[in-house]
Specification:
This protein is an alpha+beta fold. The protein folds into two domains: 105 residues, Glutaredoxin; 110 residues, Glutathione S-transferase Yfyf (Class Pi), Chain A, domain 2 (Up-down Bundle), CATH 1.20.1050.10. It has a four-stranded mixed sheet, covered by helices on one side. α1 crosses α6 and α4 runs antiparallel to α5. The relative contact order is 0.13. This is Glutathione S-transferase omega.
């Protein structure tokens, strides 16, 4: 199936009985989470990419919010990155990602909420219009990184939030972490990275994650992330960037 994003005038590709389908967008950090889970568990599936600027009516019928990711298999439709990821973990229990301990699972759910706060600061930095505001956002981002550094350190075993193997939260957090250095390219700053002296546990997490096959399978380098985001800011997002014509 073509990876090109389907837009307003498209038709929904016919679904095959019993075949799991992911509706996605290649550069979406939320769909990125679900794609990581699918690849981690080696779940057979097909992907249909959506033009999120000119959404097809048939996609809005599936998910009136018009957001990705969405999973579909036969008459079952699940939307949202956490709902899709946790459904996959329940239905395909091999390589279990959610912690068995209810307390740890609850703690990780709280950490997930904090990612939204970090993302708000991060994208606020991208859209900042003056040096003072950008400087404040960079200070705030370091506070967010410190929060996760301390949480990792409190878990003792690493390098992942899940310990010696990644947990669901590792895949929830990774799309934000992967895109973090993109800020330097968008704001013409010196290198923006997670400082290994200040954040040794986060640095170890990043080094371990980037080598994982499921991460490599859906990764983009910083230049590609930045080029797409610039097209998004311009109002003409290039959803099919890097695909053969």
């Amino acid at each position: 199936m073509s990876q090109k994003a389907l837009g307003k005038d498209s038709s929904c590709p016919p679904a095959k009985p019993g075949v799991l389908r992911l509706y996605s967008m290649r550069f979406c950090p939320f769909a990125h989470r679900t794609r990581l889970v699918l690849n981690h568990k080696n779940i057979p599936h097909e992907e249909v990419n959506i033009n999120l600027k000119e959404k097809p009516d048939w996609f809005l019928d599936l998910n009136p919010l018009g957001q990705v990711p969405v999973l579909q298999i036969d008459d079952k439709v699940i939307a949202d990155s956490t709902a899709t990821s946790e459904w996959l973990d329940d239905v395909y229990p091999e390589n279990r990602l959610q912690p068995a301990d209810p307390y740890r699972r609850a703690v990780d759910r709280g950490l997930l909420k904090y990612i939204s706060k970090m993302n708000t600061t991060y994208y606020g930095a991208i859209f900042s219009t003056n040096a003072d505001d950008l400087g404040e956002k960079m200070v705030e981002l370091e506070k967010h990184l410190k929060f996760y550094e301390e949480n990792l350190a409190a878990r003792e075993e690493g390098p992942y939030f899940g310990g010696s193997q990644p947990s669901m939260f590792d895949f929830y957090f990774w799309p934000t972490y992967e895109r973090y250095p993109m800020l330097a390219l968008l704001k013409e700053l010196p290198v923006v990275k997670v400082d290994p002296d200040k954040f040794p546990r986060l640095t170890s997490y990043g080094k371990a994650m980037v080598e994982r096959p499921e991460v490599k399978a859906v990764a983009f380098d910083q230049a590609t992330h930045a080029t797409f985001f610039k097209s998004y800011i311009s109002g003409a997002p290039d959803f099919d960037m890097c695909l053969e014509q």
